[in-house]
Amino acid sequence: SLSPVAVDVIILGLLVSGIASIMSSLNFITTIMH
């Protein structure tokens, strides 16, 4: 079983990667618009 710390690290990693992908997609969209 995973320790609570490992679960927190996994969740944090997913959040960071999700935010990074959202930011890059928004940057891509604004580049196309302009």
From TrEMBL:
Ranges annotated as spanning the membrane: 6-29
Q: Which domain of life is it from?
A: Eukaryota
Which UniProt keywords are listed?
Membrane, Mitochondrion, Transmembrane, Transmembrane helix
Name of this protein: Cytochrome oxidase subunit I
- Classification lineage: Eukaryota, Sar, Alveolata, Apicomplexa, Aconoidasida
